[in-house]
Amino acid sequence: MDLAFLPWQQADIIRHSLRLRDSFECWTGEILGQSAQATPDAIAHDLFYAPFALLSHGMEADPILNYGNQQTLDLWEITWDDLTQMPSRLTAEPTEQQERTQLLNQAAQQGYIRNYQGVRISKTGRRFRIENAEIWDVLDEKGQKCGQAARFSQWQWL
Questions:
Q1: CB-based contacts of 51: which residues, under 8 Å, 6+ apart?
Q2: What confidence score (pLDDT) does residue 103 get?
Q3: Number of folded domains that form the chain
Q4: Are the C-beta atoms of 126 and 155 separated by less than 8 Å?
Q5: How far apart are CA 82 and CA 98, in angstroms?
Q6: Which residues lie closer than 8 Å to 157 by C-beta, 6 or more apart?
Q7: Is 119 among the domain residues?
Q8: Domain with 108 in it: what CATH number?
């Protein structure tokens, strides 16, 4: 990653970070990150460098990833630019995609699910199992769904 380009410092990513945090709190009643009292810049920084993987996609017909924190970039062995152009279905192998789609549909119906596990694949082909993942609908400032997000802190390389 170009050290001059830090995604979390961009205005649209700061706004999206707040959406991720606020939506998570809406569905769970819990704080995503370290502090509810932090400034928007501090929230964006803390989520980007959090010790858990955090990623989201938009509402396209074939949803494109629109956020991945540093842990996500490291796990998927990918750059920010490549991640934010990738259909989210490609985070899983073809054999895992149907189960992933069913899970995302379940999350969309309920707004939030937890305790998901599944196998994912990095850009270089390394496979890993995620465990205890949480998935939630991301809401915009008007309360309208604008995507889905996932967070997990447990994974194992296969």
A1: 71, 153
A2: 78
A3: 1
A4: no
A5: 23
A6: 126, 127, 128
A7: yes
A8: 3.30.450.20
Domain holding 112, by residue range, is: 7-157
DSSP-based three-state secondary structure for 145? strand
Is residue 63 in a domain? yes
pTM: 0.92
50 assigned to some structural domain: yes
Q: Are 32 and 41 in contact (CB under 8 A)?
A: no
Distance CA 91, CA 24 (A): 21
To the nearest 10 degrees (0 to 180), the angle between helices 40-48 and 11-28 is: 80
pLDDT of 98: 81
| Residue from 150, 143, 105, 108 nearest 22 by CA | 143
Check whether 1 has a pLDDT greater than 60.
Answer: no
The overall average pLDDT reported for the chain is 91
Identify the weakest region by mean pLDDT among 96-100, 119-123, 134-138, 148-152: 96-100
Looking at per-residue confidence, does 1 or 97 come out higher?
97
Residue 2 lies in a domain: no
